[in-house]
């Protein structure tokens, strides 16, 4: 791995370490791209999306801190690229309103350089948005309606054309029949294939033996010929390009016959904004 686009900061409330520590660890591990994609802010909440509003001041600080570090490392390590992104949910009723607000998130550094959002990855942590029991996708459950809702919103998110890739596409923890899982989850593969959007082997989930990455899903990924990428999903500096975690991801991909992309072409999430 030379390029990682999935790392968080303390602003998300469940990560540790400074941005500089993440960058330095990535450099030590030979990364050429050290992308940050902390969880996106949302400004329009309702009772069904289950999240919390992020202070706009934190967004400005996110861009200012990373932009300033990017200027510094551009001089000391010109081979390193530090794109600034968000990992974002697709909430159908607030997505475009949120994008309008994010479009205005721009910070001007003392140097005069303007820092703004470079890319987004889709991370659908919520499922059942159109059912009576919305909640975290990773909670085990055998509801086909909840599974179908997850798949529907993932696909709608991909179809916006704003995302570089789909993070942990198999986060949904469906405990019902495999045939039902395959019937719905193959639709993600079909849509991602048509849109040429990579699907992530999530190294955090793999290392911590979570319900993802799911071999059943990635067998379909292989069969449909989807683009595949590995993401560190780093919530601590030592996870950025960690060779042990990367080796685990490579072994997973080799076992299932998956060809993994490394460097990606970032999609401009603000095209048309």
Q: Which CATH architecture?
A: Alpha-Beta Barrel
User: What's the CATH first level?
Assistant: Alpha Beta
Might you state the CATH topology name?
TIM Barrel
Please tell me the total number of domains. 1
Order of helices and strands: EHEEHEHEEEEEHEHEHHEHE
CATH superfamily: Metal-dependent hydrolases
Strand content: 5-15%
Low-confidence stretches: 47-52
List the strand order in the largest sheet: 3-4-7-10
How many individual helices? 8
Radius of gyration using CA atoms only: 18 Å
Roughly how many Å apart are the termini? Answer: 33 Å
Query: Main beta sheet, described?
Result: 4 strands, parallel
- The counted number of beta strands is 13
Key phrases:
single chain; 273 residues; TIM Barrel; 13 strands; 4-stranded parallel β-sheet; globular; alpha/beta; 14% strand; 3-stranded parallel β-sheet; 38% helix
What does the model show?
With 273 residues, this protein is α/β, with parallel strands linked by helices. The chain has one domain: TIM Barrel (Alpha-Beta Barrel), CATH 3.20.20.140. It is built from eight helices and 13 strands. The protein has a four-stranded parallel sheet with strand order 3-4-7-10. A three-stranded parallel sheet has the order 11-12-13. A two-stranded parallel ribbon has the order 1-2. The longest helix is centred in the first third of the chain and has 21 residues.
């Amino acid at each position: 791995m030379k390029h990682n686009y999935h790392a968080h900061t303390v602003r998300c409330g469940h990560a540790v370490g400074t941005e500089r520590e993440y960058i330095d660890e990535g450099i030590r591990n030979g990364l050429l791209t050290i992308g940050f994609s902390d969880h996106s802010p949302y400004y329009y909440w309702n009772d069904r999306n289950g999240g919390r509003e992020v202070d706009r001041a934190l967004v400005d600080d996110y861009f200012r801190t990373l932009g300033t570090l990017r200027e510094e490392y551009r001089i000391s390590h010109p081979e390193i690229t530090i794109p600034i992104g968000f990992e974002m949910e697709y909430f159908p009723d607030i997505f475009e309103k949120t994008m309008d607000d994010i479009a205005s998130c721009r910070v001007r550094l003392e140097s005069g350089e303007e820092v703004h959002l470079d890319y987004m990855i889709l991370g659908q942590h919520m499922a059942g948005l159109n059912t009576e029991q919305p909640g975290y996708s990773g909670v085990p459950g055998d509801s086909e309606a909840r599974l179908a809702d997850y798949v529907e919103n993932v696909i709608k998110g991909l179809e916006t054309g704003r995302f570089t890739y789909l993070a942990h596409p198999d986060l949904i923890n469906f405990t019902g029949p495999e045939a039902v899982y395959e019937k719905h989850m193959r639709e993600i593969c079909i849509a991602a294939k048509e849109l040429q959007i990579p699907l992530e082997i999530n190294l955090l989930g793999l290392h911590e033996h979570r319900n993802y990455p799911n071999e059943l899903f990635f067998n379909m990924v292989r069969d449909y010929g989807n683009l595949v990428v590995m993401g560190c999903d780093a919530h601590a500096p030592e996870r950025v390009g960690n060779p042990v975690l990367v080796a685990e991801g490579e072994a997973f991909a080799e076992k299932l016959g998956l060809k993994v992309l490394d460097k990606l072409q970032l999609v401009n999430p603000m095209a048309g904004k």
